[in-house]
Specification:
Its EC number is 3.5.4.4. By secondary structure, the chain is α/β, with parallel strands linked by helices. It has one domain: Metal-dependent hydrolases (TIM Barrel), CATH 3.20.20.140. It has helices at 7-12, 28-38, 48-59, 64-69, 71-76, 81-97, 119-139, 159-168, 192-200, 215-224, 252-259, 268-273, 285-290, 302-305, 309-320, 324-336, 342-361, and strands spanning 15-21, 100-107, 145-153, 174-180, 205-209, 229-232, 240-242, 248-250, 264-266, 295-297. The strands form two sheets. It has an eight-stranded parallel beta sheet, with helices on both faces. Strand 7 and strand 8 form a beta hairpin.
């Protein structure tokens, strides 16, 4: 029999996560405890339950710029070796508990230097934490593999340096590179040197584009920078028109994204919080899935959105009526788009994802 499409059973499904920020996924209790340990006094409230509510409400601003301000508190408690390792370890544990079998988690090393650590030391401690979390999950009977994406802040001038860092650690757990931060006024083309370096090194990268800014951001990320994936990319719908009779007309850029199978790292709850879309009902995930874009389901920031992969999938089920076969397709889309070797991606699809969903589909 087919399993019911509720949160309990969705948690049992094997899931793949491509867009998750390390500094956006801390446990509220961890934020409070690390703040006490490192002497950070800037938290708006201290009780974990109140802190969780504060992050969620503060992130519900409808503005990407205001949304990003909440990260000042999480980054502040991630400036020590112990803090970095703990946050990374708990990230892997929490994702595994939610049924995630493969995840690519990103963070910006340049934001974690206030305690005197070097960029290399920051990455070392985070990677150690991921390995500890994988081992802890395995001991609990859950398998997960976490790859790390190193992010450069698009308003800063360290992208080439961070790209070199990503390549330096590519055989030690770092699987790719990214740029993030406010889009308006900071186009991807400002960081061409970094992207050219990544391409010259045959290394993977994704670019936050098409979230708070529209088609020009997406076009630059693809045409000028050569991105492998689009972080969000939700504004590709600016190039898609749906007539009153339901007829769909796509522009050149939308056709190109679909034809080239460029993955869209869509984050439904976050996209509403940042004002990229007006509401979940207005989210283009349903349209893009129907048009067979390579859509993937992601969390973005689990703390700020009070969410998980299972909850994001349930939101899509309840909003668009997706079934188990749809969730399997989105999961395979994500695994196909991961930044690890092809044979390893195929093994996860054939040995974990398809058998896992077969049990649920019946």
């Amino acid at each position: 029999m087919t399993a019911p499409l509720d949160l309990e059973y969705i948690r049992r499904a094997p899931k793949v996560l491509l867009h998750d920020h390390l500094d956006g996924g801390l446990r509220p209790a961890t934020v409070a405890e690390l703040a006490a340990e490192c002497g950070y006094t800037g938290l708006p409230v201290e009780a974990p339950d109140e802190l969780a509510q504060w992050f969620r409400e503060a992130a519900d601003s409808g503005s990407l710029e205001l949304y990003l301000e909440t990260f000042a508190h999480t980054v502040a408690v991630m400036q020590t070796p112990a803090g970095l390792r703990r946050v990374a370890r708990e990230c892997a544990e929490d994702l595994a508990h939610d049924g995630v079998v493969y995840a690519e988690v990103r963070f910006a090393p340049e934001q974690h230097l206030e305690g005197g650590l070097s960029l290399d030391e920051v990455v070392d401690h985070v990677l150690e934490g991921f390995l500890e979390g994988e081992a802890s999950a395995r001991a609990a009977g859950r398998e997960i593999r976490v790859g790390c994406l190193l992010t450069a802040m698009r308003h800063a001038a360290r992208s080439r340096e961070i790209a070199e860092l990503a390549v330096r650690f590519r055989y030690r757990g770092v699987v790719g590179f990214d740029i993030a931060g406010a889009e308006a006024g900071y186009p991807p083309s400002r960081h061409l040197d970094a992207f050219e370096y990544m391409r010259n090194c045959n290394a993977h990268f994704t670019i936050h584009a098409g979230e708070a800014f529209g088609l020009p951001s997406i076009h630059e990320a693809i045409a000028f920078c050569g991105t492998d994936r689009l972080g969000h990319g939700v504004r590709i719908t600016d190039d898609i028109a749906v007539g009153a009779d339901g007829h769909v007309t796509m522009g050149l850029l939308a056709n190109y994204v679909r034809d080239k199978r460029i993955p869209l790292e869509l984050c439904p709850s976050s996209n509403v919080q940042t004002g990229a879309v007006a509401s979940l009902d207005d989210h283009p995930f349903g349209l893009l899935a129907r048009l067979r874009f390579r859509v993937t389901v992601n969390t973005d920031n689990r703390l700020m959105s009070d969410t998980s992969m299972s909850r994001e999938m349930l939101v899509l089920v309840n909003t668009f009526g997706f079934g188990w076969s749809d969730l399997e397709r989105f999961t395979i889309n994500a695994m196909k788009s991961a930044f690890i070797p092809f044979d390893q991606r195929l093994a996860v699809i054939d040995d974990i994802i398809k058998p896992g969903f077969a049990v649920l589909i019946g």
